[in-house]
Structure to design on (648 residues):
């Protein structure tokens, strides 16, 4: 009996060990996130492979601060690549990626091949260039374009199939062809016809659905103007079938959008049951995401705006494990500076007594000619991690009847009402047609909805020149009175009436600090006013917003409407080329409630655009600001990583 008991115990122990080991292996293989591979635009510096991560497959964070993770000029015949497609191989640990070998500024029919890549860690990639005029000189010497290659595992042949769209002088339109890849993914066979739509078909993506036993081909019909689908039980034609006859075309569109689309990508979700379908709404400035349970019907999930450092074009995604996610984050980290995702400028920071949260409002940047037309609001509890709460005012919409664009440099003030509730007054400048004017919108919550006052509240310059921009609003803690400041090339200030939507005209004053040079304190724009220990501090920006020398200077006063005395050491914040920090200015200031703890929130030039549109590629940052015993501002040293998160 003892022997039987001992045997059972040993058997139980062995079984437990097997289960434990199986659980560990399974945990290592469980997919927890998604990797998105894409390129970002049509300029050579944008035709590079970038990465982004997502936990849900719909909301993405660029890796490497949005910069490329592979240098195209080291892997491609043309020096540029587009349309990357990534595939996890059947062994679970090898990855194949293929991309269009193309520099678009040479023309849309300028590419003649593709790049094959292979990796086991998603970081280091071996590559092979397939140049069709050389590789297939007898048949495809005059090929005009080789577009959007992808790879799929063929369950019937046990081989990997690379497929792509081809156009040549003998083809009247783009057709989808295929080749077999060799065992080490360094070569392909002669192109053969895979699918003929009867009209131009590009951007194909093939996935296998175990539930119905079908391969699903998604593609863009150039003639149909949308994304369509065809299915088959065998990717390649069976005996007796002509090339392309194996596919059954489905006549209904896949996409939910009715705007121009391309670059469809389909990925099975982490749950192993549903599917994520995404496509590039390239003319509308967003990616659209749908979900499907059966690859027959598709449900809209969301539009993801392509802006700032995240401007994905024609990409694909795969699920990844926790270990793979960690490896990618370590290899391609994105620093906490900037604190807002994308390009933003002229930040206005607010602590809300109503919600006990911090908020930032800013100019939406990255548009030619400073053409951003909407404001977004971001919230945080620790000043480091910020959540995009969405667009809270669109000045090109019916929300603002008097404006038509150029949403710039906001300010906001929280005002407690007599009944204990709060009102939020959001001030900003916009293009009113003939000139820039300042308006105000009102809400009951920091995130809105905001309702515009209906007309500008500042239209004229008190000095007869300069733009009415860069508004700031300040509530004097001594008197409870509200003041407004604005100007470009001059600084004006005035007292607001109690309605917060009109100015006491007889209080308007020109406050421009006199003297100074571009090296120190010559006033340009971006006034910000705050109060500390009996002193009113006036901060402003010096030089041009596109200049590395753009910086912050200050002066002080005993009154909210001056006169201003320029500080003995007036520079608060300036560039630090040793850290590749340039143009830090146009700031706001935050005091932690109840404490003598201060932060300066500002924008700086994204270093990758220092010589390519620096004035419209700005990013929002935050650093601590301190004072000496005499109340002088100690010059702020801008940092790469910013301060530690605020702890309550």
């Amino acid at each position: 009996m003892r022997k039987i008991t001992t045997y059972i115990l040993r058997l139980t122990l062995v079984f437990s060990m097997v289960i434990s080991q199986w659980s560990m292996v399974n945990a290592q293989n469980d997919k927890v996130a998604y990797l998105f591979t894409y390129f970002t635009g049509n300029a050579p510096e944008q035709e590079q492979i970038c990465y982004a991560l997502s936990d849900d497959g719909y909301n993405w964070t660029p890796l490497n601060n949005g910069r490329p993770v592979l240098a195209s000029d080291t892997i491609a015949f043309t020096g540029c690549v587009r349309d990357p497609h990534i595939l996890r191989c059947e062994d679970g640990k090898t990855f194949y990626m293929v991309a269009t070998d193309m520099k678009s500024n040479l023309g849309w029919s300028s590419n003649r091949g593709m790049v094959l890549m292979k990796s086991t860690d998603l970081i280091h990639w071996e590559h092979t260039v397939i140049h069709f005029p050389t590789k297939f000189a007898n048949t495809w010497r005059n090929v005009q374009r080789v577009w959007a290659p992808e790879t799929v595992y063929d369950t019937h042949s046990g081989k990997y199939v690379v497929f792509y769209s081809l156009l040549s002088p003998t083809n009247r339109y783009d057709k989808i062809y295929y080749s077999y890849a060799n065992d080490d993914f360094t070569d392909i066979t002669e192109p053969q016809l895979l699918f003929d739509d009867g009209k131009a078909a590009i951007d194909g993506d093939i996935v296998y659905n175990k539930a119905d036993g079908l391969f699903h081909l998604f593609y863009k019909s150039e003639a149909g103007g949308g994304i369509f689908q065809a299915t088959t039980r065998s990717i390649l034609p069976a005996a007796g079938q002509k090339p392309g006859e194996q596919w059954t075309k489905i006549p209904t569109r896949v996409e939910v959008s009715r705007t121009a689309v391309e670059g469809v990508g389909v990925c099975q979700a982490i749950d192993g049951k549903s599917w994520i379908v995404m496509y590039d709404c390239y003319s509308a400035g967003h990616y659209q995401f749908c979900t499907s349970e059966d690859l027959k019907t598709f449900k809209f999930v969301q539009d993801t705006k392509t802006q700032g450092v995240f401007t994905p074009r024609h990409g694909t995604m795969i699920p990844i494990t926790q270990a793979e996610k960690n490896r990618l984050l370590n290899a391609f980290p994105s620093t906490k500076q900037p604190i807002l995702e994308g390009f933003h400028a002229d930040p206005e920071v607010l602590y809300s007594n109503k919600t006990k949260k911090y908020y930032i409002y800013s100019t939406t940047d990255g548009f030619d000619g400073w053409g951003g037309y909407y404001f977004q609001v971001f919230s945080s509890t620790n000043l480091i991690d910020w959540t995009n709460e969405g667009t809270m005012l669109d000045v090109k919409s019916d929300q603002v009847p008097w404006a038509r664009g150029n949403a710039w440099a906001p300010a906001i003030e929280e005002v407690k009402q007599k009944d204990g509730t709060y009102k939020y007054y959001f001030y900003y400048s916009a293009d009113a047609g003939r000139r820039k004017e300042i308006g105000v919108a009102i809400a009951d919550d920091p995130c809105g909805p905001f309702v515009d006052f209906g007309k500008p509240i500042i239209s004229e310059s008190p000095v007869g020149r300069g733009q009415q921009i860069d508004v700031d609003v300040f509530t004097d803690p001594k008197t409870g009175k509200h003041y407004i400041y604005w100007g470009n090339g001059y600084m004006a200030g005035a007292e607001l009436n109690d309605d917060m939507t009109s100015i006491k005209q007889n209080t308007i004053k020109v406050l421009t600090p006199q003297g100074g040079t571009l090296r120190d304190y010559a006033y340009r724009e971006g006034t910000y006013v705050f109060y500390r220990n009996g002193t009113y501090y006036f901060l402003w920006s010096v030089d041009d917003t596109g200049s590395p020398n753009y910086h912050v200077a200050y002066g002080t006063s005993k009154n909210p409407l001056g006169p201003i005395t320029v500080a003995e050491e007036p520079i608060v914040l300036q560039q630090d080329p040793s850290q590749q920090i340039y143009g830090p200015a146009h700031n706001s200031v935050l005091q932690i409630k109840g404490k003598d703890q201060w932060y300066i929130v500002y924008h700086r030039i994204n270093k990758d655009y220092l010589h390519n549109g620096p004035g419209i590629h700005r990013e929002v940052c935050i650093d601590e600001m301190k004072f000496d015993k005499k109340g002088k501002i100690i010059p702020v040293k801008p940092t790469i990583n910013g301060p530690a998160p605020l702890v309550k």
Remarks:
- The domain at 344-473+504-634 is CATH 2.115.10.20 (Tachylectin-2; Chain A).
